[in-house]
Amino acid sequence: MADLCASAKIIVAPDFPTNEFYWSSRIYLTLGLGGFLVHPDCYGLKPELKEGTHFAGYKGMNELIATIEYFLEHEDQRKTIQMQGQKKCLENCTFEDRLETMLETIYSDEKL
């Protein structure tokens, strides 16, 4: 996976089984390994990862194609987003961070 992230200009996350509140750990893995990721629009990611800053987003096949074409032509912008995504994941999206967030969510629900 590390070799793929290092060698591919763009990595596309499929829009299944992702939805607005579910995404796989691939986003953290891909960004953490330095890949440039095009990921389906996902509302639940917005508090921690910013579309256009840490990854590129898309809604539907036409937007996916347009996004890929855009970032193939704008290498400097792609590399900037790629570096920012990797930095963010290495600093704030570790397994420890994920576990802490889950526990905070569980314990805050218990107080309701």
Short description:
The protein has helices spanning 2-7, 26-32, 60-73, 75-92, 95-110; strands at 11-12, 37-40, 56-58. The protein has 112 residues and is mainly α. The chain has a three-stranded parallel β-sheet with strand order 1-2-3, with helices on both faces.
Explain what you see.
The protein is built from five helices and three strands. It has 112 residues and is mostly helical. The protein has a single domain, classed as Rossmann fold (3-Layer(aba) Sandwich). The protein has a three-stranded parallel sheet with strand order 1-2-3, with helices on both faces. Helix 2 crosses helix 4.
Task: Tell me the distance between the termini.
Answer: 41 Å
Largest sheet: 3 strands, parallel
| Sheet/helix structural class | mainly alpha
- The tally of beta strands, per DSSP, is 3
According to CATH, the fold-level topology is Rossmann fold
Compute the gyration radius: what is it?
15 Å
What is the count of distinct domains? 1
In percent terms, what proportion of residues is strand?
Answer: 5-15%
- Please report the number of helical segments: 5
What's the rounded overall pLDDT mean? 92
The CATH superfamily is: Glycogen Phosphorylase B
Q: What's the level 1 CATH class?
A: Alpha Beta
Q: What is the 3D shape?
A: globular
Unreliable stretches covering 5 or more consecutive residues: none
CATH-derived architecture:
3-Layer(aba) Sandwich
Order of helices and strands: HEHEEHHH
Fraction in helix: 40-55%
Strand order of the largest sheet: 1-2-3
